[in-house]
Amino acid sequence: MSPEQLAADDHRLAAQLARRAGELLVELRQRLVSDAPAAVLGAEGDRRAHDLLVRELAAARPADAVLSEEGADDGARLDAERVWVIDPLDGTREYSEPPRTDWAVHVALVVDERPVAG
User: Fold this and answer.
1) C-beta neighbour count of 11 within 10 angstroms
2) Which range marks the domain in which residue 19 is found?
3) Could you report the per-residue pLDDT of 4-55, keeping only the tens digit for each?
4) For the whole prediction, is pTM greater than 0.70?
5) CATH number, domain at 55?
6) DSSP 8-state secondary structure symbol assigned to residue 77
7) Where are the alpha helices (DSSP H) in the chain?
8) How many domains in the chain?
9) Can you say how many angstroms the Cα of residue 43 is from the centroid of all Cα atoms in its chain?
10) 68 forms bridges with which residues in the sheet?
């Protein structure tokens, strides 16, 4: 794959993963909103979106490092050329207060310390 094709594919992957995590969060909130306290809803949303993004990135880009706000930083990213930077649920409190919609999923790629996708 050429560098241009890989860059376009990275953009598509970032958008696809953010959309999938967002859909998961919407479905989760609809299912749990009446049964779970706000803190549980937010924590569960953070965890599930993080798990989905990390799993999908490992499958699609196994050689890339991942830095997630919700995960442990093992330091591998410091030597990696390509690092995905994710915030699985930006606005956890807002997410936990339906019907608020001012929350988001962030997926970005940094290559050689420069943001290139997301």
Assistant:
1) 14
2) 3-117
3) 887 889 999 999 999 999 999 999 999 987 777 888 899 999 999 999 999 9
4) yes
5) 3.30.540.10
6) G
7) 3-32, 38-60, 92-95
8) 1
9) 14
10) 86
